[in-house]
Amino acid sequence: MPFGKYEGKFLIDLPEYYVVWYHNKGFPRGQLGLMLETVYELKLNGLEELIRNIKLRYPK
User: Fold this and answer.
1) Each residue's pLDDT tens digit, 24-52
2) Is residue 31 part of a domain?
3) Is the Cα torsion angle 1, 44, 38, 59 positive or negative in sign?
4) SS3 state of residue 2
5) Where residue 58 falls among pLDDT bands split at 50, 70, 90?
6) Which residues contact 19 (CB under 8 A, 6 or more apart)?
7) How many helices (H) and strands (E) does the chain have?
8) Domain residue limits at 26
9) Which of 21, 33, 41, 45 could form an S-S bond across to 27 if both were Cys, CB 3.0 to 4.6 Å?
10) Around Cβ 32, how many Cβ atoms within 10 Å?
11) Is residue 36 assigned to a domain?
12) Residues 33, 31: Cα–Cα separation, whole Å
């Protein structure tokens, strides 16, 4: 996340309530909004573990 309380966190690691709040408020425009929308769908469908496994397999 590039700003705010969760600055520096991976989007997949944002708390679910925060991503749902963005969903209800409206995602920002641009690439960040698209990524947050994707994270919302992953969390909604219980698939965030897929991304966490990829992070573990391919660290920075």
Assistant:
1) 999 999 999 999 999 999 999 999 899 98
2) yes
3) positive
4) coil
5) confident
6) 36, 39, 40, 43
7) 3, 0
8) 11-57
9) 33
10) 15
11) yes
12) 5
